[in-house]
Structures are given as C-alpha cells and as structure tokens.
Backbone:
C-alpha cells in the first residue's frame, strides 16, 4: 500500500513539465491511498484489485483571482477477475466547492466491466463560466450554468435503450445556456434553457412489474448536439408534462 500524508509529496512525484501550470495555484491537504493488485495484466486481462483513495481537506487557491477550491473525497475500488459481476467502484463522498458553486456525489457502480449498474445521488450547482476562468482547459470551451438534485438507480444498458420500466429516477435537472465545444474533435453541445423534474419508479411484484410515473415535467428551449460521427440532433420548444396518481401497467416502447 501507499500512504502519503500531504499533497505536496504527491506533486513532487510528478514530472516538472506536467505541473508547470500548477504554479498559479497554492495547494494543500492530505492524500491517503492504499491498494493491492495481484494477478496478470495484458490485453483484456486484469489483476485482482482492492484499493481506496481518500482526499482530505484539499484546498487549491487560485492566486491571481484569490479564489479557493475545497475538495474532499473517499472512494473504494474492488475488482475480482473470478467474480466480475461483484466488482465495483464505491464513492462514499465526493464534495467540491468554490464560491457558490458546489458538487456533491455519493454512489456506487457495480459490475463495472460488464453492464454497470449505477446507484447514486447527485447534487450540484455549477457556474461553468466561473469554473472555466479558474481552470481553463486547452482545446475545450465550457460555459453556462447547471444545477441538479437527483437520485437514480439504473443499469447503463437500460439507460441507453431508454427502458424506462427498469429505471428509477427522482429529482430535477436545470441548464442555462450550456456550451461544450471541443474544436479538435468537432464536437459541440449547446443548450439554451432546459428543465426536467422527474419521478420515475419501477414497482415489482410477484404478478407483474409496473411503472409509476408520479410526475414528470420536461421543458426545452433549445438543445443541440453535433459531432462528425453522428447526425446533428436538435430539440427546440418542447414541453412535456405528466401527472399520474395511479401506477400504469404498460408503457409504450420508446424509439
């Protein structure tokens, strides 16, 4: 295992060329990493891994703007090559704040190399204009505001297929003039204004499986996604509202 008490020791292990951009930040805090890896690693074969990472009271002060970022994280990773379905990443806490911007995540992803199953709670209020001024990234433009308070349980396959009978999602998501652009990849995401208030719950019993749509409201002004590998997708002026007091037994398939 590796036990490093201070973040300064970690930075000293990184090549100077990679940390040149960190000179405009003053970073403090404690890092603790413990882990073991045993087995063969090649191609698609991975060793058994049992590891934990704790970031305790990490503070990064942006000297030019006198802004302070606070970060705390505790996470565990376990991979068993003989029982892949039991492998997981468990984020016990991931809390980051800078000014009025905050990001709080707690959750677990299991079967991480198969069909990952996500069980998570996310709360955030992100001012990307402010964050990008503190942490500019080469070849990436990100702007706008994003807020969310959502709890979700789903497998990645069911989410991609929009198999709503097997998705639990409760909470809200709001975006305001979001822009994400990667020029080198010709990738663009733009959202003018969009809100979603969701209450989706799949209820299982011995006789049947029912989908309970307690309330859902989706309002989209403009959302646009484009990249070289996909046809440009654009949604404009969409309003959808549903309020169902009693659970419904059948839901039409989404295409």
Residues:
């Amino acid at each position: 295992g590796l036990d490093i008490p201070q973040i300064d020791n970690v930075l000293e292990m990184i090549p100077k060329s990679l940390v040149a951009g960190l000179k405009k930040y003053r970073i403090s805090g404690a890092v603790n990493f413990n882990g073991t890896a045993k087995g063969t690693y090649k191609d698609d074969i991975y060793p058994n891994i049992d590891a934990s990472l704790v970031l305790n009271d990490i503070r990064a002060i942006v000297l030019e703007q006198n802004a302070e970022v606070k970060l705390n994280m505790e996470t565990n990773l376990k991979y068993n090559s003989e029982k892949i379905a039991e492998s997981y990443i468990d984020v016990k806490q991931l809390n980051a704040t800078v000014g009025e911007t905050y990001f709080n995540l707690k959750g677990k992803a299991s079967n991480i190399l198969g069909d990952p199953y996500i069980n998570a709670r996310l709360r955030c209020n992100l001012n990307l204009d402010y964050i990008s001024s503190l942490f500019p990234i080469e070849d990436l433009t990100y702007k706008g505001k994003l807020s969310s308070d959502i709890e979700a349980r789903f497998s990645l396959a069911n989410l991609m297929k929009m198999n709503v009978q097997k998705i639990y999602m409760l909470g809200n998501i709001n975006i305001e003039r979001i822009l994400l652009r990667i020029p080198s990849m010709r990738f663009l995401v733009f959202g003018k204004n969009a809100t979603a208030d969701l209450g989706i719950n799949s209820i299982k019993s011995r006789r049947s499986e029912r989908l309970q749509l307690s309330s859902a409201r989706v309002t989209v002004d403009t959302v646009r996604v484009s990249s070289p590998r996909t046809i440009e997708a654009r949604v404009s002026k969409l309003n959808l509202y549903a309020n169902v007091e009693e659970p419904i037994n059948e839901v039409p398939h989404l295409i």
Summary: The helical segments are 7-12, 128-134, 156-160. Confidence is low (pLDDT under 50) at residues 245-255. DSSP finds three helices and twelve strands in the chain. The first strand starts at residue 25 and ends at 38.
